[in-house]
Amino acid sequence: MRRLALLLMCALALVTASECTAQIPGLHKKKPVDKSTDATNTAEPDKQLYDKAMNDIKHGRHEVGRLGLQTLINTYPDSEYLAKAKLAIADSYYKQGGSSNITLAINGYKDFIVFFPFLPEAAYAQMQVAMCNYNEMPKADRDNTHTKAAEEEFQTFLLKYPKDPLAPQAEQRLREVQEVLADGQFKVAYYYYVKGDRRAAAGRLIPLVRRYPLYSKSDSALWMLGDIFEKSERKDLAGSYYAQIVKNYPLSIHDADAKAKLKAFGMPVPQADPKALAWMTAEQNTPRPKETVIHRSMEMLHNAPDVHAAAAHGLPNLEPESDDNGGDLLTGGNHTTIATGTGSSTGAVVEVVKPGEAPPAGTPAATPNSEDVNSSGASDSGADKDGNSGAPATAPADGAAAGNADQPAAGSQDGSASGDTAKKEDNTQPTSSDSAQTQSQNKKQKESSSKKKGIKKILPW
């Protein structure tokens, strides 16, 4: 009886276990795979290469992904994924970062624009070229090679694709780039301004205020220019810069002082431009991060420039720097050519002559007046090259007389006329004592000029 009970219990346990395993689906069986619907087998080989390479790039395997994309380009030159592969290679270099990779990314994006200029992705490639240079920008007081390249690329984007969805972003980036470029020029100009070198300061401030009107310190640059020309006794030019402050920067901290200067000069005070007033009001209402001590200290640890003061409104300058002609150039002979007003083709020349230097030709100091005559009554132009103060020689009556100047005149029979002329020539020749006096005078003049050159090292004006 005991054995029968044990057998019944074992049989009941086996039946219960079989029922439990039967309720678990797919425990011992696998689902059948329909190979006819498998996407990996039906996809084209170029798509397989593209998908695998993009997956590698997505997971950080950039070298492996670029190798697969290059294989796709070389193996299937007529593939529909050719353009996407070229753009993906450039994006891979851009995401990986580093100076060398950024250079390769720029080349890749430019190649894409050359080969596929009419695709919608061409605008994105141009934007990426500009962003590559933008991310490599150093501070304003350092090498501005990448900064200038970023300005050119953003200008190219806005000129070629003005209606692209990325245009507002490119416009703001261009304002920030031009803020950095203008700030670099302003810092150098301010150094020369404080030092007292007015010509060097004006040579950098003049193109700054003309090319970058959206710069956050353009009003200060105009005020510095007005002060420079006021100290140079050119109140007409100083008044033109003070008038620009009143008209184009009505909310500036220099507005009241500029108006006072114009009234003191007796010049009319212009009215503020409504567009400029609206622009400055919008700029002041734009939220910006506060410059705290911690912010400034942390800024010293970064290589990127601080662009928080860049304008957020207004159209940036879209003209390349090489095409910005306006006569604001420093030319030879201590001349500084500036424009009398914005957008005008006329200019004024400011003479900056240092002590001991002769005034340039054409100036009132260099041009002889009717009153500047010698004590003998003859003007300076009457003296010959040898320093003689005789009357100027008259030209011969005809060419024959000029050719036979050494022969006696035809009317003289005994040669008395030739003898008289010989006596006159002997009288005009300098003696040994006269030559010694002239040498001593020249020596004194050289010593005085050398002293004046020594003064120039101390006095810049």
Second rung of CATH, namely the architecture of the domain at 42-119 = Alpha Horseshoe
- Considering DSSP H and I runs of 4 or more, what fraction of the residues is helical? 55-70%
Look at the structure and give the CATH class of the domain at 42-119.
Answer: Mainly Alpha
Helix and strand content put the structural class at: mainly alpha
N/C terminus separation: 132 Å
CATH superfamily of the domain at 42-119: Tetratricopeptide repeat domain
Any overview of this molecule?
It is elongated, with a radius of gyration of 42 Å. With 461 residues, it is mainly α. 57% of the residues lie in helices and 3% in strands. Helix 3 runs antiparallel to helix 4 (62-75), helix 6 runs antiparallel to helix 7 and helix 12 runs antiparallel to helix 13. Among the domains are: 42-119, Serine Threonine Protein Phosphatase 5, Tetratricopeptide repeat (Alpha Horseshoe); 325-367, no CATH class. The chain has a three-stranded antiparallel β-sheet, with helices on one face.
SSE blueprint and pairings:
Elements: H1 2-23, H2 39-42, H3 45-58, H4 62-75, H5 82-96, H6 99-115, H7 121-135, H8 145-160, H9 167-195, H10 198-211, H11 218-231, H12 235-248, H13 255-265, H14 274-285, H15 293-299, E1 330-331, E2 335-339, E3 347-351, H16 399-403, H17 416-428, H18 432-458
Antiparallel strand pairs: 1-2, 2-3
Helix pairs in contact: 3-4, 4-5, 5-6, 6-7, 7-8, 8-9, 9-10, 10-11, 11-12, 12-13
